[in-house]
TrEMBL record, chain A:
Protein name: Sulfate transport system permease protein CysW
Keyword terms, alphabetized: Cell membrane, Membrane, Transmembrane, Transmembrane helix, Transport
Domain of life: Bacteria
Main localisation: membrane
Protein's organism: Pelagimonas varians
Annotated localization: Cell membrane
Gene: cysW_1
A biological process from GO: transmembrane transport
InterPro entries from the UniProt entry: MetI-like, MetI-like_sf
UniProtKB/TrEMBL annotation, chain B:
Protein name: Thiamine import ATP-binding protein ThiQ
A GO molecular-function descriptor: ATP hydrolysis activity
Pfam families: ABC_tran
UniProt keyword list: ATP-binding, Cell inner membrane, Cell membrane, Hydrolase, Membrane, Nucleotide-binding, Translocase, Transport
Residues of the ABC transporter domain: 2-231
EC number assigned by the record: 3.6.3.-
Superkingdom field: Bacteria
Length: 506, 235
């Protein structure tokens, strides 16, 4: 059948694009002998920062999720939705915001200086962890909150009627839940942080704060030592595969569901102390997320009004093109692969780091063309691959439901594949496709990964442009470009998501 | 002639066996306890369920290995007979143009005619969600009419409708099937429906497909397996 052929082709292309670069890296790899002393430190740092990031994200998420689960206040559902925003927030924008709060001349240091306290330095291990917690605290909070709200209200009623003490209730209802969800959340965040590149690039660096991904980049970019880059890529690959397998075992079924506005009626936590504690946690979490973003917007305005700096608009044009092309490619891939096997295949692709893929593609392309001239196409392909697992996770249940609901009707009508695709499948999947396309576009728009490996000054994307402006200490222009990036990312997401919703409510 | 020879289908825990032949143009009710395999029997005829052994044939042609879309069969399901996002017109057009092409002048005339026959004249622009349950059933029946296939299968299609509406629909099916000369096989729970609609009754009970019996004779002297299922008072 034609459909089957399409699905197999899509799967083969994906497999080829995943395995090809790895094969290229393997062939090129200089063997373990090419390690340098610094590489072991990079490995240690990578694991250590990922452990700490996972730990702090989950530990802090517990009180926040608990407070959100049992309090009802104005703006609660908005805050819960906002917890999903970091997922599509460009890393470089978040880093700008965090620097504005915690950096040399940031808010915190200004207050500290006025109080005569010590000066904070955001660069290094704690900066990397801070940024990782910024991104993953909301993720952990959403995972926990979802589980928390799934506790049936009857249990809380029973606990209330039995007169359990707060501690007793925590032990019987909440602690088992934390024990069930927290390890999975930790594992997922650990894996995400293992392959962290942009955060390490901007806030880490130096011998004591280099991740393996960053080391690959440095080997390629500064030393042009392809053998060493290949070896490091193998190391990264092995690490990601092992950690990914562990995470798959531990992870809860739903990684990032839609935020629930639901509220379970609760009878506990009525005293003044728990009230104040919960309020403080919620305020602290909201401030931690919102203040950096607010500062990006505030500080970005002057820069954006002044024209955004040299090359910013060209970079923005590149980024929008890359984002749109990645989205189209990702959707073309996702539609035939929206089933169980396809999802497993794409998870294999996520275990791969973009830098490893980039290195491999670089090695493959080099004999034929100047790889730097291929920067934007390669970025497009890698971004589409990286977004594919998320797109499939959104599309697969819906695609299977359409098949389930209308497959028999299709047979009895003798509909052709093309008619089915055009008249039923695509219209029925409009909403999830809009959402998935929005995520893909925003992720591709904000990506600062493989482009850093390939790019020359003529082919920068907007995130890379922000990074370069920061490196050149043109802070006003950088802030302007960061604001532009933020606006474009969120707009693309909104446009696609909205496009899927309009008129799709039958 | 629709023939089922030495049919054997393994269902979870049990099996469905039997032989059957039904003449073109007959109206046949399939009765029996839930879970006995009534719907499985329809699935076998429609091709949604492949046989573990045995054969299905239609006027000398072997259907056993044919996929559902190659069989001379149209079906009314319990629900989901229309695509909810397409207008009634578009839904019916799919019966004439399974490749999704545009309607020709002739198609338009045929669709409007079919809608008129089922009492939905002027409703072609509506989506199914804006129709009542009875109207949706009528639209689905118009679809079956346009498909014009020699075998029509009904899987408890009107069970969500009230008694009066249901009787009306059965009369309409009878009329449509009569005009097509089609064999109708209807799965039902209600003996009254069988009495009103069917010429023959096929009992499916205890994993066995029984031979068809004329409806009057069936209810005058119900087989024991049927009496066990309905209880003596109703039989």
């Amino acid at each position: 059948m034609a459909q089957r052929a399409v699905a197999i082709t899509a799967a083969l292309v994906l497999a080829l694009l995943t395995l090809g670069p790895i094969a290229a890296v393997l062939v090129r790899s200089g063997g373990l002998g090419a390690f340098r002393p610094g590489d072991l430190e990079a490995l240690q740092f990578t694991i250590w920062q990922a452990l700490l990031s996972g730990f702090f994200s989950v530990a802090l998420a517990i009180p926040v999720a608990r407070a959100l689960a049992r309090r009802h206040f104005w703006g609660r559902s908005l805050l819960v939705s906002l917890l999903g925003a970091p997922f599509i927030l460009p890393v470089i924008v978040a880093v700008m915001g965090l620097i504005a709060v915690f950096g040399q001349n940031g808010l915190v240091n200004t207050v500290m200086a006025a109080l005569g306290g010590p000066k904070l330095d955001i660069y290094g291990l704690h900066g990397v962890i801070l940024a990782h917690v910024f991104f993953n605290l909301p993720l952990a909070t959403r995972m926990l909150l979802q589980a928390w709200l799934a506790i049936p209200g009857e249990r809380f009623r029973l606990a209330a009627s039995m007169g359990l003490s707060p501690w007793g209730q925590f032990l019987t209802l909440e602690w088992p839940l934390i024990r069930r969800i927290a390890p999975g959340a930790f594992a997922v965040i650990f894996v995400i942080c293992l392959t962290s590149f942009a955060v390490a690039l901007t806030l880490g660096g130096g011998p004591r704060a280099t991740t393996v991904e960053l080391a690959i980049y440095q080997a390629m970019r500064f030393d042009f030592d392809l053998g060493r880059a290949a070896t490091l890529a193998m190391l990264q690959l092995a690490m990601a595969v092992i950690a990914g397998m562990i995470a798959l075992k531990l992870a809860p079924a739903q990684g990032f569901g839609t935020g629930r506005g639901r509220q379970v009626p609760r009878w506990d936590g009525r005293g003044a102390v728990p009230r104040i504690c919960d309020t403080l946690w919620i305020l602290a979490a909201a401030a931690f997320l919102l203040v950096p973003l607010a500062l990006v917007v505030l500080r970005g305005f002057p820069g954006l009004m002044a024209g955004g700096g040299m090359g910013t608009w060209v970079a923005a044009k590149h980024s929008v093109m890359v984002a749109l092309a990645s989205t189209a490619l990702c959707m073309l891939w996702a539609l035939p692969l929206a089933n169980r096997r396809g999802e497993l295949l794409s998870v294999a692709a996520i275990a791969m780091s973009p830098l490893v893929l980039g290195t491999g593609l670089f090695l493959i392309l080099r004999p034929f063309v100047n790889p730097f001239s291929m920067a934007l196409p390669v970025t497009t392909v890698v971004n589409a691959m990286m977004a594919l697992p998320f797109a499939l996770r959104i599309l697969r249940p819906e695609a299977e439901a359409v098949e389930q609901d209308f497959g028999r009707l299709r047979s009895t009508l003798r509909m052709t594949s093309l008619a089915w695709l055009r008249l039923v499948w695509l219209p029925r999947l409009r909403r999830p496709m809009g959402f998935a396309a929005g995520l893909t576009a925003a992720l591709a728009m904000g990506d600062l990964g493989v482009i850093a490996l390939f790019a020359d000054p003529d082919r920068a994307t907007l995130p890379l442009q922000v990074y370069r402006l920061m490196g050149a200490y043109q802070m006003e222009a950088a802030a302007g470009a960061a604001l532009l990036l933020l606006i474009l990312s969120f707009s693309l997401f909104w446009l696609f998501d909205r496009g899927g919703r309009v008129g799709a409510d039958t | 002639m629709l023939t089922l020879e030495n049919l054997n289908v393994v269902m979870d825990g049990s099996a469905l066996t039997g032989s059957l032949s039904l003449a073109p143009g007959r109206r046949v009710a399939v009765l029996g306890p839930s879970g006995a395999g009534k719907s499985t029997l329809l699935d076998v005829i429609a091709g949604f369920r492949l046989l573990d052994s045995g054969a299905v044939g239609w006027s000398g042609k072997d259907l056993t290995q044919l996929p559902p879309d190659k069989r001379p069969v149209s079906i009314l399901f319990q629900d989901g007979n229309l695509f909810p996002h397409l207008t009634v017109f578009r839904n019916l057009l799919l019966a004439l143009k399974p490749n999704g092409r545009r309607a020709s002048q002739e198609d338009q005339v045929r669709i409007e005619g079919a809608l008129k026959r089922v009492g939905l004249a002027g409703m072609s622009g509506r989506t199914p969600g804006t129709l009542s349950g009875g109207q949706q059933s009528r639209a689905a029946l118009a679809r079956v009419m346009l498909q014009g296939r020699p075998i029509i299968l009904l899987d408890e299609p009107f069970s969500a409708l009230g008694p009066a509406l249901k009787a009306e629909m059965l009369a309409l099916v009878r009329e449509v099937a009569g005009s097509l000369g089609a064999l109708v096989v209807m799965v039902t729970h209600a003996p009254a429906d069988a009495r009103r609609f069917a010429e023959d009754v096929v009992l499916v009970a205890e994993g066995k497909v029984h031979l068809p019996v004329a409806t009057a004779a069936f209810f005058a002297n119900p087989p024991e397996a049927y009496r066990d299922y309905v209880g003596t008072s109703q039989a």
